[in-house]
Amino acid sequence: MKIPAVAYRADGTRGPGALSEVELDVTEIRESALVMPGLLVVDVRGGAGLDRRGGDLRFKPAGGGGPLASPGDRREAMAFGIVNVAYHLRRGLDYLAPLTGHALPPLIARIGAHQDEHATWGGGHYRLPATGYSSLPETTMPAVTGEIHLGPGGAFTQAAGRRYFAAPAHVVAIVAHELGHHLTRHTADFRLNGQRPPLAQTNHRIPLDEGTADYLAAVLLGTPDIYGWHRGGTPPSAQARRCLDGPWTMAAFRGGHDTDPHLDGTVWAAALWSAREAVRARGAQATEFDRLVAQGLVRTGVADPEMPAEAARRRRRSFGNALGAILDADAVRGGRFGEVIAAAFARRGIETRFSNADLRDRCRGLPRRAPAGPGR
Amino acid sequence: MFGVRPKRTYLTRTMPAAAAAATTIGPHDGPARAGDLIAAKVERLGTHDHVEDPHGRRVRLYPGDLVIGAYGNRYATDFYEGYVPTGARTHLLTAGGLIGTVAAAHEAHADPTRLEVAGRLVDERLRPRSLEDFARPLRPLSPATGSPITVAVLGTSMSAGKTTTAAAIVRGFARAGFAPGAGKVTGSGSGKDRWSYQDAGAHALLDFLDFGMPSTFGYPLNRLGATMTAIRDGLASEGCDVVVLEIADGLLQEETAWLARRLPGFADAVVFAAVDALSARSGVALLREIGVPIRAVSGLVTRSPLATREATAATGLPVLAPAVLAGGAAVRLVASESVVA
């Protein structure tokens, strides 16, 4: 049933978005959950009172709620958060399905997750069932197809000149980024989770995964400065801001197990964004490039039964191979954009014939390590 | 005359450079008053072998150095009870440059650094200068400036962890996206405390020194009350949306007790820094008696898990270590519902 709702819509400004009336196709409204086809959004803290308005989901953001808000405003903000998350996940899933050629598996989003362990967690993560978790352990096993967990929030930011509690459910960038991990898990499957026991997958992410998730956030927000609102205190010139139109090339790539994959992923995300802009500059729709990216992810995820797992993982973490998959996807569609895409990636120091480390060293002007590429 | 430049102490922080340059050392005549700016020669080094300069840097002292400080009284149970002197031979009461005569000393600091007053700081017209000359006016808060969230920190005594607690609260609010201001309402001027707040992320800082007092012991109570309000309002007018106020000494100190009675209706939340569980219990009971909105206990007691448990049971309040306050619990002190530890 189509239900009137209110959510933030991306408006290209450095804020939460424009408060807008939307419609949600909802199967069931529960007290603190919305059930939609292939999607469940629930606030695990309970008490949102979604069902108190007789099928009307037009709640107010109430300044994001938070500890300083009145109980009434907190409840209103919680209800708004559920609706906001549902709207953006639905929108993202609906955008992605035709691009990948299939609907992604069912998705669960849990808001207010891990409150007991981290009462002020202001971020989100995408969780798969695993035998262990590096932080914020799960008390109940996540769904095999993956879950988005959004923290209760702990920090304030500004919106329209007023203090706003940056509850992750109100921050579209976080929601969209985590949706990106659902996309990559069920397409490129960078860590070969599809080949692991369903309850023993890994949640470790690689730069390509994080960069692709940031790219999807930029696509859905319509701006490269995806974290400009709630992380506005981080200068745009800092890599940690993860602004996709920053100057990041493979020279900024660090690599290695001790490096934050979000930061290294910024190079990939920025390359994707500049390629998208280059394709648009040719008069094409941005969606055409997004389709190539999605198809590239699908191609990356096609298993080679002959290839040992370690070799397959190595192959899937290569920026050059990921670019190759996008170019291949373009080639089977007539190769309209291959040249412009390759040029855009080359400006970021990404080419198809080299490993990540070689690309980095080339970009930094260091001697090449090996003549051979990583093998595609 | 003395061979080395005079060493300006932290208490001269509020004196503009131009005013400082225009001063000379004049005769020491007339009655001595708290706040008078004084030049004194180090006769013999004792407990204080350094002073803080106007920025708070530790500056080593040598016998024969000339220090520029201010007369004042000190009330410090772990250090000195001291008063504005009546003669030329006196003591250095604090590293911040408070000059006065020790009346009683903690046995760990029985040997104060001895000073001989060389004269008063005077301007071009030989008028004695005082910290009062550089005090901020006590302006009422503009109606356009909203009243900030106000958190006060009190404690059982000196060295109960009040500054650490207040700095942690400042940190917690700064991390949560607020612009916290830090204010020290009473005590003796100290660059160390100021830097603690600065390092914690304070957006702006004010203390009694900004309002013309080198230390607060002995000043009229009404002036201290007005200063507490002025610090809060001054920080709000500088853009702070949260103000964290530290009130020095313990609840049994007369001025602290008087100010504590003014906190209901003034502070949104009070955190009590205690050294142990028993003092936490008695301090919280005293504050509850006078209707203070006490929301949590912190301070030295939190260093011991056992003592923390005792204090929690004895007070019924969350007992929050500074790291917990800095990590996010600070904001919950002023939550519309009870504190979540």
The span between the termini of chain A is 47 Å
Structural domain count of chain B: 2
How much β-strand is present in the residues of chain B?
A: 25-35%
Largest sheet, spatial ordering of strands of chain B: 14-13-15-12-16-17
The oligomeric state is heterodimer
Overall 3D geometry of chain A?
globular
The gyration radius over C-alpha positions of chain B equals 20 Å
Radius of gyration of chain A: 20 Å
Name the helix and strand elements of chain B from N-terminus to C-terminus, one letter apiece. Answer: EHEEEEEEEEEEEHEHEHEHEHEHH
Please specify the SSE layout and strand pairing.
The complex is a heterodimer of chains A (376) and B (341).
Chain A: E1 2-9, E2 18-25, E3 28-29, E4 33-36, E5 39-43, H1 71-100, E6 107-111, E7 124-127, E8 147-150, E9 156-159, E10 162-165, H2 172-185, H3 207-221, H4 261-281, H5 286-300, H6 309-316, H7 319-331, H8 338-347, H9 356-363
Parallel strand pairs in A: 5-6, 6-8
Antiparallel strand pairs in A: 1-2, 3-4, 4-5, 7-8, 9-10
Helix pairs in contact in A: 1-2, 1-5, 2-3, 3-4, 4-5, 4-8, 5-7, 7-8
Chain B: E1 7-8, H1 17-21, E2 24-26, E3 37-44, E4 50-52, E5 58-60, E6 66-71, E7 74-75, E8 80-83, E9 89-92, E10 98-105, E11 113-122, E12 149-155, H2 162-175, E13 180-184, H3 191-200, E14 204-207, H4 221-237, E15 242-250, H5 254-260, E16 269-273, H6 277-289, E17 294-298, H7 305-315, H8 322-332
Parallel strand pairs in B: 1-6, 6-10, 12-15, 12-16, 13-14, 13-15, 16-17
Antiparallel strand pairs in B: 2-11, 3-6, 3-11, 4-5, 7-8, 8-10, 9-10, 9-11
Helix pairs in contact in B: 2-3, 2-8, 6-7
Protein described:
The complex is a heterodimer of chains A (376) and B (341). A 6-stranded mixed sheet of chain A has the order 3-4-5-6-8-7, covered by helices on one side. In chain A, strands 1-2 form a two-stranded antiparallel ribbon. Chain A has helices at residues 71-100, 172-185, 207-221, 261-281, 286-300, 309-316, 319-331, 338-347, 356-363; strands spanning 2-9, 18-25, 28-29, 33-36, 39-43, 107-111, 124-127, 147-150, 156-159, 162-165. Chain A is globular and about 60 Å long. In chain A, 36% of the residues lie in helices and 13% in strands. Chain A starts with a strand and ends in a 13-residue tail after the last helix. The longest helix of chain A is centred in the first third of the chain and has 30 residues, at 71-100. In chain A, α1 (71-100) packs parallel to α2 (172-185) and α2 (172-185) crosses α3. Chain B folds into 2 domains: 7-134, no CATH class; 149-332, Rossmann fold (3-Layer(aba) Sandwich). Chain B is 26% helix and 26% strand. In chain B, the strands form 3 sheets. Chain B has a 6-stranded parallel sheet with strand order 14-13-15-12-16-17, with helices on both faces. Chain B has a 5-stranded mixed beta barrel with strand order 3-6-10-9-11. Chain B has a two-stranded antiparallel sheet with strand order 4-5. In chain B, α2 (162-175) packs parallel to α3, α2 crosses α8 (322-332) and α6 (277-289) packs parallel to α7. Chain B starts with 6 loop residues before the first strand and ends in a 9-residue tail after the last helix. The relative contact order of chain B is 0.14. Classes of the chains: A alpha+beta (376), B alpha/beta (341). The interface between A and B is medium-sized, with 17 and 16 residues.
